[in-house]
Design goal:
By secondary structure, the protein is mainly α. Helix content is 67%, strand content 0%. The chain is built from six helices and no strands. Helix 1 runs antiparallel to helix 5 and helix 3 runs antiparallel to helix 5. The longest helix has 15 residues. The protein is globular and about 40 Å long. It starts with a helix and ends with a helix.
């Protein structure tokens, strides 16, 4: 689901304190053999644990240990079947 990719992108951006280039993340996931359109929670968590720091370092965006733990927690709690608060507000 693209929602998992969108959530991963948003949480990465929050973790580093600036907007992570979305297309670069998309291409990096594709290079890893993942389909960003069909990304699920487990794939996003695996990316977070194995590849996120290196990906962000290539962009000059360091992810500290505390931010990495917060990112992992946020991805663990994400349920793609439930709308996010911003999606709920957009419907009003």
């Amino acid at each position: 689901m693209r929602r998992a990719f969108d959530h991963l992108h948003a949480e990465l951006s929050v973790g580093v304190g600036c907007l992570v280039p979305r297309y670069a993340l998309w291409l990096h996931l594709r290079d890893l053999g993942l389909d960003p359109e069909a990304l699920d929670r487990e794939q996003a968590l695996s990316f977070c644990r194995r590849h996120a720091r290196d990906f962000l370092a290539e962009l000059g965006l360091p992810l500290g240990p505390h931010a990495a733990r917060r990112l992992e927690r946020a991805l663990t709690r994400f349920d793609p079947l439930r709308p996010t608060p911003s999606e709920q507000l957009a419907r009003l």
